[in-house]
Automatic annotation (TrEMBL):
GO terms for cellular component: DASH complex. Pfam families: DASH_Hsk3 (PF08227). It comes from Rhizophagus irregularis (strain DAOM 197198w) (Glomus intraradices). The keyword Chloroplast does not apply. This is Uncharacterized protein. The keyword Coiled coil applies.
């Protein structure tokens, strides 16, 4: 038998006491609740951003149309 082989003498993993385990699960549960709240808030922010992007696009189109109309008006007045 090999005396350098310590695999047979390894200690089993230490189990946490029930109170510590319960506290750990409560902590994980609280973190999961916060994560779910943050995900819901993120979803709302994404929806609002999409709506704002549509409005920004319309604003850009209107701005471009006004610029082209002003350019045409200035050319007609200059001639």
């Amino acid at each position: 038998m090999d005396t350098n082989n310590n695999s047979a003498f390894k200690k089993p993993p230490k189990l946490q006491p029930p109170l510590q385990q319960l506290q750990h699960y409560n902590s994980l549960n609280n973190q999961l609740t916060r994560l779910q709240q943050n995900m819901a808030k993120l979803e709302e922010n994404i929806k609002l951003t999409v709506e704002q992007l549509k409005n920004i696009q319309r604003f850009g189109l209107a701005h471009g149309a006004i610029f082209m109309a002003a350019n045409r008006t200035m050319r007609n007045n200059a001639s």
